[in-house]
Amino acid sequence: MSDNPQQQITEAQVIQYLKQHPVFFVNNPGLLQQLSIGGTSGDVVNLAERKMLQLQNKNQQLTEQMKQLINNAQRSEGLMDRLFQLLTDLSMNAPKTEFVTAMVRFIAKDFPSDYFKLYLGDIKLSDDSECVSYHNPQLKSLFASFNKNKAPLAGRLPAMKLQALFGTETEARSAIVLPIGDQAAHGLLAFGSQDDQKFHPDHASDVLQKLAHILAVFLDSQQSNKESQNSSP
Hints:
There is one protein chain. The chain is an alpha+beta fold and about 230 residues long. It has two domains: about 25-90; about 95-230, Beta-Lactamase (2-Layer Sandwich). Helix content is about 50%, strand content about 15%. The protein has eight helices and seven strands, in the order αααββααββαβαββα. It has helices at about 10-20, 25, 30-35, 45-90, 95-110, 135-140, 160-165, 205-230, and strands at about 35-40, 45, 115-120, 130-135, 155, 175-180, 185-195. Strands 4-3-7-6-5 form a five-stranded mixed sheet, with helices on both faces. It is elongated. The chain starts with 10 loop residues before the first helix and ends with a helix.
């Protein structure tokens, strides 16, 4: 700070001084009660009160986040119980149309979203649902990243990808897409939402990845059985 009382101290100089002396208010605690700033509602509050308000708001945010995490965990546990029961009722040797139809019904009921599509490389036995479509070359090209990365793709995807997944008239603004099998060998599992914040890159997808894995295991089994039958004399 300047020793010349006639020299005007600028706001920038005050800011710079406080940055260079972060313990200034620790050494001069009485000043905190003398400083006043505008509150969020326009009221004037001292700095200590403002800090307390900020801490209260932060605690409220953390509390809400914790509630959401607990709710998600409870929901996931319930979903896994129902999924286990579904797999118990079915069998990996079940006819493809029966297995896929049951999975589609389970997903549509327990994972509600504005858009849901299951793209498979072979839909001859499972084309009885509007949610099931053919994993066509356009989709393979648009989602070629799954050839190297098996992690789900989520967020506000380009319009071209959203239209390829959910149709040209779609109002989807965000989506999550999961590969079925290594390099999406069996197809794609896709969910879309009109809310552009519904699906995001950090979206929790553990249960959805398990669904994609179950489908992949079943389709691998079906393919192996088919190849064995074809090779039999």
